[in-house]
Structure formats: structure tokens, C-alpha cells
Design goal:
heterodimer, A: alpha/beta, B: Cytochrome-c3 Hydrogenase, chain B, 5-stranded mixed sheet
Chain lengths: 163, 439
């Protein structure tokens, strides 16, 4: 089993909702060893299955929390709950936050779960990210790839931060 | 966000819920109550139409399945298959034998995914008094785990045949890009066998829920097939007289625009709203269910016709049991086809396709030219058709429940909407709930 599982969540055809996929694709292009990359729509049950039994999971998704577009949020999901108002921008009835919390309730979270959220600006129809989100994508790619390469993901501090 | 507002001077009361949870998509519901009577009910849908029908024009007919599948991540097979069959119809081709069986099998996978999700994660919490499946899982982890495992098997069918669980990539006009081997399908058998037992338990479990006494005189519309419980094809029938080939769909079911929704409403010609989905299918095709599904339905007290939408959860569970059995049967009889797809040569004309999506009939009609270029497209999702029926249910359900406290009334209104497992993403779009009460 790969040590790291990266899950990009979103919809490329809803502008900034494609941020999670973009990040996952860019890290995939780096062909890092011991890394599995999964593209997910964000449907909760499938997401739980993708995480189940995995060691270190890093999940990327766009968020719509009212913060400055391009803001980056980071949660150590084993140490803290995902705020209910995050990751709500989905047409799925059972989505990212619910999947993580349900996995917690059923004691089936991966050993480590880090969740990156990027505040989106435009969730309209069509491909392409906003400029602010493109910048944030680049930052998250570098940070996540760095975490993996240095294999220090598991030591990462639990505090959420807003860049 | 939810809010309950009373105005003592005018005697009005408004209950406002900005986001209706546990539905696929987002929209809102507005209910106005005055003097003990419901004055207005509007299911409002905000998300702008996706213009799928418009941007299909000018595209090659072979592109329709993959383009339309993007309408919905929950029921892509309804679009992949409906559009494929419509194009095959236009080109005078019929897919039969193992390829047809494979299509039915992957559709069973979609029903399993969708029904297991709705029964366990979206609808059961309503009946057991939980805000959501996460809170339900705290007290009943065994049920939630069973639901997730049931759903997972649907995903597995989608993956083995379709290439991936969401937006499968292996389906095309004429069949498949690659047909799975019998050995590949056999990997599903053990879990499917478990699933039959688990689905049986599901029927018995949901039948113990408390149900409001609420039966309506619906016009049920569903597909009917002479040899099987219709899923991939059939004649258009209703309990009030429709019995027609699918090419006459537009004659019987008329679409109209309403100001409060970006999704078109559908009415039966010269009559009114109709009801698509599990209750309609079950009530019109009970005799086509497997003996075990029929027997189990009877055992839990379900008649051959069910006109109580709150009991749709039991009917969905009976259908879940049926598609588990049907999947096993299809795998058992499967022989890898000689070729994965039929060759289709375009010819000018019109084609029709309709399948039973988990939420009801999903209709496609296309006109193509001699090169196979799409000249015209029409796609009708079941949730769009069910919108007026959902509104009617609320109009008829609320008056006898006005003595309920506001929070309970609001809860039951949301539950009444969830009876239909509305897929607002499909019907165009996004759900929120407002109830305005005037004493």
C-alpha cells in the first residue's frame, strides 16, 4: 500500500470548485514515490471508501466560507472537527465534511488525515480557476509536495491556519 | 439557515429554511399558510439551466452519452444509456443479448448506489429523529455501516463494467468500449449474495418506521416491459390510461415554464401532475418483481399499490432487494460478448430513449442529420417532472398538520420533499425551504 493517498475533490466544470483536482493533478505530475492520487467528485460514501484503511491521506477541496478568495485552510482532521460551514459547495447531499465526520463516528478515519481547503471566488459554470485561486493552488501544491517529500506530514501541527 | 417568524398583527407566520439538507442539489421551497389553509407552495429552483440541450446541437451524435452523463454524478447511467438508446433508435439499431444484459447490470449498480445512499444516509434519519446520518451513526453504527457496504457494492459494479464509479467511461453508443469477462464479474458475486440478505433486512428495518397516514390519488407514470421489471426500456404507461411507445412521450407529457423555477414543469396532457419513481414503478409493475421481492413486500404489509409517498423508503428497499437479486442473475447468465459494441452508422432522423433512473423516467429525444450531427435535443429528468407533485403533496399534507409545533411541521415538510429523493442537480440545479404561516 502506498504510504500517501492524495484525494482531489471537486468539479472541473464549476470554475474554482476544480481547485482540488488541479492540486491533485499537479502533484501527480511530480510522480513522487509512494503516492497514490485519487480524483473524487466529493460524494461522501465514495470518499469514505477512498480513505478507509489508508495510512496518510491528504485531501484537497475548494471551500466557500466567506473568507478572502484564495485563502488556504488546513485541518488535521484527526485532531479537530471540520467546521460545518466548510466544503458545503457541493451538489451532493452527503459531502466532504459529512464523510470525514461520519468516518470519525464509525472509527474509520485513516491514520493521518490532513485537509486543505482553498476559498473559491467563482463557482459558476465552466472550466478554469480564478487568479486568486490559481495562486493558492500553486502554494498548496508546493506545501503538500514538501510535506510528502520530507515525510513530515505525520508530524505536522494540528492548528488550522488561514494564509 | 432556518428561521420561524410570526406576525401577530397580520396573523402571518413564516418558517424559513435557507438550505434544505439531505437532497441532491440546492434550491428552496416556499410555503404560505393562511387561516388554516395552504395558500401557496412553490418549489423554487435557482441554479441557472445548464443549457445542455443547446450545446449538444452541432456536436457529433457519438458525443451525446459522455456529454449528458455530466448532468449528474449520482445517475450518469440514466444519461449515458438514455442518450445511447435514443441515438440507436435514430439509426435503426437495437442492442440485444449480453450487451443489453451488461447495460441492465450496470444500471442495477446505479440503483444500488443511489437507493442505498438515500435509504440509509438521507431518508432514514428523518424517521428515526436524527438531524443527519452522522448523529444516527452515533446510536446505530451497525445500520450506517450496513448502508455503506450496500452502497459500495453498487460502486463496485459501476467500476467493473463502467471503468469508474462516478461518470463511468466505458459506455458508448452501440454498447461498450470493452466488455468485462465473466471472471471479472464473478468477483462481485460473494458481496452481492451478502447484499441480498442485507437488502432483505433493510426492507424489514425500514418497514418498522412510523409513517404518516397520507395517501393521494396520483397518476403514476412508469415504463413497463413484458418480461422484466422495467429499468432500461419499456412502454410508457400510467394508472390513468397512458399506454404508449416512448416515441409518444411528448404527446402525453407536456413541459411548461413556471416563473419560480428554472426547471421546466411537466404535466400529463389534459390532466395534471404525475408521479415518477419507485412508488410509480412498484405500483404499476409489482407483478414483474422477483418472487422474493414480492413476498417480502407482502410480509411487511405493503400492498401491490403504494400511494403513501412517505412509504417510498420501503418501496426503495424492495427495489434494492430486487436489483441485488437481478445483478446476481445477470452475472450468472453472462457470457462475454463476441464484440463489445455494435457498429452504428448515422442516418438522418429522430430517436427516442427512456430509462428508469433511480428517481424515475429519464427521457431523451434527439434529431440528427445524415452525418450524425445533432440538430436538436430534449432531455427530461425525473425530478423536474415530479416538482408539481411534490408541491401538491405539501399543499395536501400541511393542512391536517398545522397543529404541529413549527419545528416539527418544518421537519415534516422537508421529509415530504425528501420522499422523492429529488436530484435537483439533474433537474437543473440547487433546495432551500421557506414556510410562511398566516393564522
Amino acid at each position: 500500500m502506498n504510504r500517501f493517498t492524495l484525494i482531489g475533490v471537486g468539479n472541473q466544470y464549476r470554475r474554482d470548485d476544480g481547485a482540488g483536482w488541479e492540486i491533485a493533478e499537479r502533484i501527480k505530475a511530480k510522480a513522487l514515490p509512494d503516492v497514490e492520487v485519487i480524483m473524487a467528485s466529493g460524494e461522501g460514501a465514495a470518499l469514505m471508501e477512498s480513505m478507509q484503511g489508508k495510512k496518510h491521506v491528504i485531501l484537497f477541496d475548494a471551500v466557500c466560507s466567506g473568507a478572502q478568495p484564495g485563502s488556504i485552510f488546513k485541518f488535521d482532521a484527526r485532531a479537530e472537527r471540520i467546521p460545518g460551514n466548510f466544503f458545503n459547495y457541493s451538489t451532493h447531499a452527503f459531502s466532504v465534511a459529512e464523510a470525514v465526520e461520519l468516518a470519525r463516528t464509525l472509527d474509520s478515519l485513516p491514520e493521518k488525515l490532513l485537509v486543505f481547503g482553498i476559498e473559491g471566488e467563482d463557482f459558476g459554470s465552466g472550466p478554469g480557476l480564478s487568479e486568486s485561486v490559481k495562486q493558492a493552488v500553486w502554494q498548496v501544491v508546493e506545501e503538500a509536495a514538501g510535506l510528502i517529500q520530507e515525510q513530515r506530514f505525520h508530524n505536522d501541527k494540528a492548528e488550522p491556519n488561514c494564509a | 439557515m432556518s428561521a420561524i417568524k410570526s406576525n401577530k398583527t397580520s396573523g402571518t407566520k413564516t418558517i424559513k429554511v435557507d438550505y434544505l439538507a439531505r437532497v441532491e442539489g440546492e434550491g428552496s421551497l416556499f410555503v404560505k399558510v393562511k387561516g388554516g389553509a395552504v395558500k401557496d407552495v412553490k418549489l423554487k429552483i435557482f441554479e441557472p439551466p445548464r443549457f445542455f440541450e443547446a450545446f449538444l446541437r452541432g456536436r457529433d451524435f457519438r458525443e451525446a452519452p459522455d456529454i449528458t452523463a455530466r448532468i449528474c454524478g449520482i445517475c450518469p447511467i440514466a444519461y449515458l444509456l438514455g442518450s445511447s438508446q435514443a441515438m440507436e433508435d435514430a439509426c435503426g439499431v437495437q442492442v440485444a443479448g449480453p450487451l443489453r444484459d451488461l447495460r441492465r447490470l450496470i444500471y442495477c449498480g446505479e440503483w444500488i448506489e443511489s437507493h442505498a445512499l438515500h435509504i440509509y444516509m438521507l431518508h432514514a434519519p428523518d424517521f428515526l429523529g436524527y438531524q443527519d446520518a452522522i448523529r444516527m451513526a452515533q446510536d446505530h453504527p451497525e445500520y450506517v455501516k450496513r448502508g455503506l457496504r450496500l452502497k459500495k457494492i453498487g460502486n463496485a459494479i459501476m467500476e467493473v463494467i463502467g471503468g469508474r464509479e462516478i461518470h463511468p467511461v466505458n459506455l458508448k453508443i452501440g454498447g461498450f468500449y470493452k466488455a468485462p469477462t465473466k471472471k471479472e464479474l464473478n468477483t462481485l458475486v460473494e458481496e452481492l449474495k451478502w447484499g441480498v440478505d442485507a437488502a432483505l433486512e433493510t426492507v424489514k428495518w425500514v418497514a418498522t418506521f412510523p409513517f404518516p397516514d397520507f395517501e393521494q390519488d396520483y397518476e403514476f407514470v412508469a415504463l413497463r416491459h413484458p418480461d422484466e421489471y422495467a429499468i432500461t426500456e419499456g412502454r410508457l404507461i400510467s394508472n390513468k390510461g397512458i399506454d404508449a411507445p416512448i416515441k409518444e412521450y411528448d404527446h402525453h407529457l407536456i413541459e411548461e415554464q413556471v416563473a419560480h423555477s428554472t426547471s421546466l414543469h411537466t404535466k400529463v396532457r389534459d390532466r395534471g401532475a404525475c408521479f415518477l419513481g419507485p412508488l410509480a414503478r412498484y405500483s404499476l409493475n409489482f407483478d414483474k418483481l422477483s418472487p422474493l421481492a414480492q413476498e417480502t413486500a407482502k410480509e411487511v404489509g405493503l400492498g401491490q399499490v403504494c400511494a403513501n409517498p412517505f412509504k417510498s423508503i420501503i418501496v426503495r428497499a424492495v427495489e434494492l432487494l430486487y436489483v441485488y437479486e437481478e445483478s446476481l442473475r445477470l452475472i450468472q447468465n453472462y457470457e462475454t460478448p463476441d464484440r463489445p459494441a455494435l457498429e452504428i452508422t448515422p442516418r438522418p432522423g429522430k430517436g427516442y430513449g427512456a430509462t428508469e433512473a433511480p428517481r424515475g423516467i429519464c427521457y431523451h429525444r434527439y434529431t440528427i442529420d445524415e452525418k450524425g450531427t445533432i440538430m436538436d435535443a430534449k432531455i427530461v429528468s425525473p425530478t423536474a417532472v415530479n416538482q408539481p407533485t411534490i408541491e401538491n403533496d405539501l399543499r395536501n399534507y400541511i393542512p391536517s398538520n398545522l397543529d404541529l409545533p413549527d419545528d416539527q411541521l418544518q421537519w415534516q415538510c422537508e421529509q415530504a420533499v425528501r420522499n422523492y429523493d429529488p436530484c435537483i442537480s439533474c433537474s437543473t440545479h440547487f433546495l432551500k425551504l421557506n414556510i410562511e404561516r398566516e393564522a
